[in-house]
Every structure is written in structure tokens, then in C-alpha cells.
Amino acid sequence: MVRMQDIDAASVDAWLAARAPLHTAQDAQHTGVALIEESGADEGAVVEAARAWQREWYDAGYAELGAADAAVVRSVAANYRLPDLRPLLIGLHILGPALREHGTAALQRRYLTPILRGEILACQLFSEPEAGSDLAGVRAKAVRVPGGWSVSGQKVWTSNAHFADVAELLVRTDSASSRHAGLSMFVMHMDAPGVDVRPLRQMTGGAAFNEVFLNDVFVPEENLIGEEGTGWRVAMTSLSGERAALGGEFEAVPPQLVEKLAAMALRRGRSEDPLVWGCLADAAVADFAHRAVVEHGAADPQLAGAAASVTKLMVTDLLEVVTSAVLEIGDAEVLLERGASIDAQWSEFILGKPGVAIAGGANEIQKNVIAERHLGLPKG
Question: Percent of the chain having pLDDT more than 70?
Fold first, then answer.
């Protein structure tokens, strides 16, 4: 439930000032540019810091706000260096919306508050090895057993599966149906017998994605989200939440991105080069346009759905512009950088970019969503 509050920027600023440092000009010299799907040796500490911060955030009343109040809070919070909250994204903005819109009152009571307080972290078991972006091609099956369902199958490209407490699981419950029909959605506990999580090493060197094998995993009847056979509708709610989050509160674009590009140019003696100035200008324009659309969509709930898809497209375009700038400033040799240096992180940024482009639906899918759902154009 959304807490109805009259949020003012000054009170939010005072609360944050007591708990977090402000961003400074030096941040661009020393902070990283990791994208949304990165992992590292300190991942456990990152996860615990996110949990702790979210608990304080909820207790202060900032975790359940309407669109206008949330926009005020987000604008003020952008001035502060907060913990990395990406481990919370799937629970707050993918599973959470599905439970609010489709879950029973009992499911909402059991999971929503723990998710909002950071006590339960989630992953998303949608994609499968032979389906790609085609969610309607789901083959993982759930068959009825006493008290619930037995699930078997394989999921892949699952972020957070290695530390998630629960999963939002899309499976086929009617094997006689095909495509969008016969799909159902469940909340599944990741520590249930029969769940096997295996990390997938990425070309960045990290392993934020996983493949998940499900071998006769029992899921209780009461963990069904919505009605049996309505999993596609539930999935669309979750994907809309994911697109909105990636374009807004949990955006894939690291903060101070243009400043970090400028700092890289300064380190490499390219700060007076007109070609570099042009690249920085392109990045600044793309960044400004993306953030303007985010704020416009946040201020008008009627535009939220369309804005989510538009901003996801803009994020992808922005990352392409930034990649071009990095390669102009650092040349192709930046891709060879390894270790903990800032330039090595730019290498990981470029190599991790394809994962962000696919998250929430590839560009082609976003364009179809905009055309068909928001512009009312006929299906191709």
C-alpha cells in the first residue's frame, strides 16, 4: 500500500544529510562505472549494505510513495552517495508490482513488507535456453501434486539467483496449451530442495548471471500469483516494472557519467581535443534527454507505461554514445585494461553493455510495445 505523505525536499535532504555523504567533484575521479549486471569479490558486503539501507529507508517512510512524492525523493537522493541498491531491484520493481496487482491478500501480507524492508531479495526465473527473449516459448513445467505443484525445467541469465531468497517463477501449467496460454506465475523459495544454481562467467570476468536447474521443486498452492493460466499477464506487469526501474530509480546508467568521461580525458591528456569535446557533448545531450524523460514520466502516472519503454530505449542509446566516447578518448587499448583501475572499469562497462541492452526487453521488443500498446498501431 502506498503511504500518503506530503513529502518536501527539505525534510528528505535533512534525513539523507545525516546518513550519507554528498556527491563531490572528486567522485568522478575515483568512483566506478559498473553497469547493472556486474559482480565482484565484495558482492556479499554490497548485498548486506543494500539490505541495511533499505530497512532504514522503509522505517523512515520513503519506501512506499506515490509517483509525485517518489520523484521528489529521487531528485534529492541523486545528490548523495548511497549504497549500491541494485540487489533490491527485482524484489522492489519486478516481483513487488506483480504481487500488488495480481497476488492474493495472503501473498501480499507474507512478502510485500519484507521485500520493502530489504529482508527478502528476489530473482526472476523467466528466460530459458531455447527461448531467448520469447517468453511465450517457456518449457519449464509445473504439474499438480498434493498441496501444490512440482516444477521441473531450466532457466538462464538469472541475475541475483546466487543470493536471492525467493524467485518469481514463470512456468507452463497446461502442457496442452502453447505460446501465451497455459502459463502460470509463482513465488518460489530458492532454498527449496531441487533448486540448483550455477554461475555463468561473463566476458567481463564477473558472474552476475546464473543458470538455474529445477528438479521436481515443490511450490505450495498458495504461492500462485494470480489465477492459473494467467502467467503471461503477470509477466507483463513485472516487465513494465523492470523497464521503469531501469530507466529511473535503478537506472543502468552510473551517476556522473559525463563527468567521469571528462576525468578520463584529463588523465589521458585529451581534454583539449575537439573530437573529445564533441564526444562529451553528445554524451551530455543524451544523458540530459534521458533524465528529462524519466522525470516527465514520473510526474505523470498516465505516461508511466510509455515512458518506461521510451527511457529503456534511451538508456541503450546513451550507453552506445558513451562507448563511442570511451573508445575515442582511450582508443581500443582501453578494452585490454584489467585490474582495479578506473580505465579497467571502462573496459568492463563496454563488455557488460549487451546485458543491459537486453534486460527488460531488447530494443525491438520495446519498439513493439510502444507501437502496439501506447500508440495503438496494428500488430505486424
Answer: 87
Q: Domain of 348: which CATH number?
A: 1.20.140.10
**pTM of the predicted model as reported, rounded to 2 decimal places:** 0.83
Rg of the chain over CA atoms, in angstroms?
21
Please indicate, yes or no, if residue 346 is contained in any of the structural domains: yes
Question: Which of 171, 184, 176 lies closest to 140, judged by CA?
Answer: 171
With cell 557519467, the residue in question is 257
Total domain count, the chain = 2
Kind of pairing between the strands at 195-200 and 209-220:
antiparallel
CB 231 within 8 Å of CB 300: no
What was the pLDDT predicted at 25?
A: 65
Catalytic residues: 242
336 in any annotated domain: yes
User: Helices 304-330 and 257-267 meet at what angle, rounded to 10?
Assistant: 0
- Conformational region of residue 220, where left means phi above 0, alpha means psi within -120 to 50, and beta covers everything else: beta
CB-based contact 60:5 (threshold 8 Å)? no
Flag whether 102 is in a domain: no
Does residue 330 sit within a domain? yes
Q: Which backbone phi and psi does 244 adopt, to 5 degrees?
A: -65, -40
90-104, 285-299, 341-355: which is most confident? 90-104
| Angle between the N-to-C axes of helices 231-247 and 274-299, in degrees from 0 to 180, rounded to the nearest 10 | 130
